[in-house]
């Protein structure tokens, strides 16, 4: 995803000399080409996230479009007040980019796990939150953000994510992207957990339950039409690699309440049981309750209540 | 509505601003009068000499930019801006009232002349640094003035910014430290020692001037030349101009009573040469 991001950003930087990328001394092997091709549109601020974010806001206030790049918590929680006051309150066109969503940095430990970022970024005023499902959505969203004049948060995975979309798929801002149709319910996901959603759907189909699978990249402007249709079909199970508190499923619940939608919702997110557990991304997802099995269990629980 | 106060010099502007600050904090029963009286000569000198000088050109890309990072001294900034015709002087009467334009910490929205909302310390300098860097990279003129408190030198972002400004040789950035030696609970040196402050900024690669922060000619002179990022240590007195407010911690919090206001106003009036 980070490669798709930087490739898309480079194309936009070529078109728009006012586009600038600032990094907090991270992105070895990822940002090199960009920094060589666009030296006047690239700044390595050093290791000083708070100052970097305030500086990015000031830079953007002069009419520039600024992307700020770092790992999960470093570009979000470490400089939260700068994002709140200098970016969001001042409504400066800064895109906060984090790489390493959820457990992408697996065995590097909890300091590198990004599990609370959506909740926190989503709570900020004027902030648009985007979580692409694959490299194709990443490319489209990066292009979309390059011309947006609002503060935004872009949550990226890391590398080697599966691809679910054709490159020319019908991308529309605010839209939920269906990967697979189904009549008995829906699995919604954000980020790189699409594989879990599709596997759960495959296994459910063997038991006669067909569920739709769709990615939700626009967390702060939810697709009402899709949610209304989905809720009319059956239960919705939301899968995300984030804390259960305040992520995509919380966003959908709040939206449903505001919009008077009756949604039967299941939340599959990180239980955050043992913060210091070591292991790779798949392992940490599994032990924290993010798996095809937990999704299936949730659907079966809904079915049992119905019976 | 323009009222066209015309001040012959920054000293007269500062004297009028002091009276407004006292009236505002009295009216609103608001705090931070000591901080406002400490920084008002600095702000008066900057705005008196600003390029371009009139608020009509506020939207110009290459205008001088002023950021008051010590947002709790809002009354000083608002008084100076009103007296320099940025907005109606009547706004000052509603300071801190429900639905008012002007609040207790500097707020940018809808207030002409204010570039950045501040109030949490350590934000103004990184933001100003970003503007200065963008201008330098795009060969745009205009200086960026960032006024910080000495207590703000406790913040890590102050020193991070000092490193970055030097890295990019930002000769369009001026930091003015309102060095009144008092922070929220006591003296700066008893809290987190800052001295030798000038040596610290010099070691970070900045040009440093240490001057009398209530002397407008010294301030004006210090603003006039620089070859690198510049730090002006403006030695000031908290509560300057009102004897019972000077150099005390308590006037960081108190607002003047009716009696104290009239005594304070008469002291300011008498200071006229």
Protein described:
The complex is a heterodimer of chains A (307) and B (273). Chain A has two domains: 2-155, Thiamin diphosphate (ThDP)-binding fold, Pyr/PP domains (Rossmann fold, 3-Layer(aba) Sandwich), CATH 3.40.50; 177-306, Rossmann fold (3-Layer(aba) Sandwich), CATH 3.40.50.920. Helices cover 38% and strands 19% of the residues of chain A. Chain A has helices spanning 2-15, 32-37, 49-60, 80-89, 117-122, 135-146, 194-206, 224-233, 248-258, 281-287, 292-306; strands at residues 19-23, 42-44, 65-71, 94-99, 128-130, 152-155, 177-180, 185-190, 211-215, 236-243, 265-270. In chain A, helix 3 runs parallel beside helix 4. The model of chain A has no long low-confidence stretch (mean pLDDT 96). Chain B is of the alpha/beta class and 273 residues long. Chain B has a single domain, classed as Thiamin diphosphate (ThDP)-binding fold, Pyr/PP domains (Rossmann fold, 3-Layer(aba) Sandwich). A five-stranded parallel sheet of chain B has the order 1-2-3-7-6, sandwiched between helices. In chain B, strands 4-5 form a two-stranded antiparallel ribbon. In chain B, strand 2 (144-149), helix 5 (156-167) and strand 3 (173-179) form a beta-alpha-beta unit. In chain B, 50% of the residues are buried. The mean pLDDT of chain B is 94.
């Amino acid at each position: 995803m980070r490669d798709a991001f930087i490739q898309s950003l480079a194309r936009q930087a070529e078109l728009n000399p006012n586009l600038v990328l600032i990094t907090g001394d991270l992105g070895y092997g990822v940002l090199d080409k960009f920094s060589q091709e666009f030296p006047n549109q690239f700044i390595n601020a050093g290791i000083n996230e708070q100052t970097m974010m305030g500086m990015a806001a000031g830079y953007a206030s002069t009419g520039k479009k600024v992307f700020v790049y770092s790992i999960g918590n470093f570009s979000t929680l470490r400089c939260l007040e700068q994002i709140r006051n200098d970016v969001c309150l001042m409504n400066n066109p800064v895109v906060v980019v984090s790489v390493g969503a959820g457990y992408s940095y697996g065995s590097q430990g909890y300091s590198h796990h990004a599990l609370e970022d959506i909740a926190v970024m989503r709570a900020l005023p004027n902030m648009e939150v985007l979580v692409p499902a694959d490299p194709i959505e990443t490319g489209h969203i990066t292009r979309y953000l390059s011309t947006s004049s609002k503060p935004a948060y872009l949550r990226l995975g890391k590398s080697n994510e599966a691809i679910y979309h054709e490159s020319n798929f019908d991308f529309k801002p605010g839209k939920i992207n269906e990967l697979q149709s189904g009549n008995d319910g829906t699995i919604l996901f954000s980020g790189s957990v699409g594989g879990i959603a599709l596997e759960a759907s495959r296994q459910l189909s063997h038991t006669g339950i067909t569920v739709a699978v769709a990615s939700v990249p626009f967390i702060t402007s939810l697709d009402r039409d899709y949610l209304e249709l989905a809720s009319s079909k059956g239960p919705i199970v939301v899968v995300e690699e984030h804390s259960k508190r305040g992520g995509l499923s919380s966003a959908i619940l709040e939206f449903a309440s505001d919009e008077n939608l009756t949604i039967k919702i299941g939340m599959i997110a990180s239980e955050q049981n043992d913060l210091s557990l070591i292991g790779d991304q798949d392992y940490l997802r599994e032990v924290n309750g993010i798996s095809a099995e937990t999704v299936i269990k949730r659907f079966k629980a809904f079915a049992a209540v119905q019976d | 509505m323009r009222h066209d106060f015309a001040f012959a010099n920054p000293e007269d502007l500062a004297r009028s601003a002091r009276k407004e600050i006292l009236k505002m904090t009295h009216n609103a029963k608001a705090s931070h009068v000591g901080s406002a009286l400490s920084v008002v000569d600095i702000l008066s000198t900057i705005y008196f000499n600003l390029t371009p000088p009139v608020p009509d050109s506020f939207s110009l890309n290459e205008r001088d930019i002023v950021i008051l990072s010590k947002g709790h001294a809002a009354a000083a900034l608002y008084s100076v801006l009103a007296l320099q015709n940025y907005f109606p002087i009547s706004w000052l009467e509603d300071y801190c009232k429900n639905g008012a334009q002007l609040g207790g910490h500097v707020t940018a929205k809808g207030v002409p002349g204010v570039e950045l909302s501040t109030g949490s310390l350590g934000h103004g300098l990184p933001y100003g640094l970003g503007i200065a860097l963008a201008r330098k990279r795009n060969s745009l003129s205009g200086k960026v003035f960032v006024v910080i408190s000495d207590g703000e030198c406790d913040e890590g972002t102050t020193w991070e910014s000092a490193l970055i400004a030097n890295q990019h040789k930002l000769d369009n950035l001026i930091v003015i430290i309102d060095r009144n030696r008092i922070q929220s609970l006591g003296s700066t040196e008893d809290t987190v020692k800052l001295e030798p402050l000038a040596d610290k900024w010099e070691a970070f690669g900045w040009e440093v001037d240490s001057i009398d922060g209530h002397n407008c000619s010294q301030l004006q002179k210090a603003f006039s030349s620089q070859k690198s990022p510049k730090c002006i240590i403006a030695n000031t007195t908290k509560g300057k101009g009102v004897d019972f407010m000077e150099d005390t911690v308590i006037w960081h919090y108190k607002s003047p009573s009716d009696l104290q206001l009239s005594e304070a106003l008469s002291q300011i009036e008498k200071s006229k040469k």
